[in-house]
């Protein structure tokens, strides 16, 4: 999918077998070589495949480097009823702060700046990890601000693809986007103490949502409008415009509930 797993695996092989990167070549995924391979997802691809290629001792001793096994997860170490145990080898932590501007007349917003700090353990490839964090953040930003789902009263999904709802574009990227890592931490049970970062940055996109919420609240206070204010995601331009109440929004007629069949049902 372009998340850089092949590059990381080449780095692992080079480190474990002590050979230059130019001597390592990857073949396409096939059941001919790896049966029942794990799908790419869940932020565990580097963990599973990286640990599978740590075979320096076997290589030196001329032992077969092929083996078949199945990963059951961590069910044996966790009691889901009591919430006790050790479900995972690590958790990923992060924080984000975003600055936005809103246009109270049109409902449009602009992402001025975002600062992100992530706990990545020991990064195998910082450039790839920064890319994963950037991509996850932008995806989350789209989830919380522009990608709206519209259903018919009968449950038919209207917005089925990018031609029916807006996805993040270059103009939606913050003008300033800064990403930094926390100091590395040791974890002997993971691949070189690294952590999976595929999806962990998605929730950080909510920092844009809350920044817009604060901007709307500030605009309402200037106009003497009372609070508190409830806003649901995604915060589309329409919702921003209607939340910034003024004489124009009051001109929009309000239909009595139950007097009509809505075109779409909010979820």
TrEMBL record:
Domain of life: Eukaryota
Pfam families: MoCoBD_2
Gene Ontology molecular function, alphabetical: iron ion binding; oxidoreductase activity
Alphabetized SUPFAM superfamilies for the sequence: Molybdenum cofactor-binding domain (SSF56003)
Domain annotation Aldehyde oxidase/xanthine dehydrogenase second molybdopterin binding: ranges: 55-174
Gene3D superfamilies, per database record: Aldehyde oxidase/xanthine dehydrogenase, molybdopterin binding domain
PANTHER family, sorted: XANTHINE DEHYDROGENASE
Protein name: AOX1
Organismal lineage: Eukaryota, Metazoa, Chordata, Craniata, Vertebrata
């Amino acid at each position: 999918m372009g998340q850089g797993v092949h590059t990381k695996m080449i780095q692992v092989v080079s480190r474990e077998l002590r050979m230059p990167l130019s001597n390592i070549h990857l073949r396409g995924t096939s059941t001919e070589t790896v049966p029942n391979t794990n799908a790419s997802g869940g932020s565990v691809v580097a963990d599973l495949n990286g640990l599978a290629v740590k075979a320096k001792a076997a290589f030196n001793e001329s032992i077969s480097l092929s083996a078949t096994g199945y990963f059951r997860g961590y069910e044996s170490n966790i009691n889901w009823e009591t919430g006790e145990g050790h479900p995972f080898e690590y958790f990923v932590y992060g924080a984000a702060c975003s600055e936005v501007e809103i246009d109270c007349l049109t409902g449009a917003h602009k992402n001025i700046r975002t600062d992100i700090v992530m706990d990545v353990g020991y990064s195998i490839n910082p450039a790839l990890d920064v890319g994963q964090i950037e991509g996850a953040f932008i995806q989350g930003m789209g989830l919380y601000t522009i990608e709206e789902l519209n259903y018919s009263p009968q449950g038919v999904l209207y917005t089925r693809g990018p031609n029916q709802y807006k996805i993040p574009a270059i103009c939606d990227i913050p003008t300033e986007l800064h990403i930094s890592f926390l100091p590395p931490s040791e974890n002997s049970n993971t691949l070189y103490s690294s952590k999976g970062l595929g999806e962990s940055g998605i929730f950080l996109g909510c920092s844009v949502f809350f920044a817009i919420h604060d901007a709307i609240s500030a605009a309402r206070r200037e106009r003497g409008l009372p609070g508190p204010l409830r806003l649901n995601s995604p915060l589309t331009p329409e919702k921003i415009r209607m939340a910034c109440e003024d004489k124009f929004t009051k001109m929009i007629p309000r239909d009595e509930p139950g007097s009509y069949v809505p075109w779409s049902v909010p979820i």
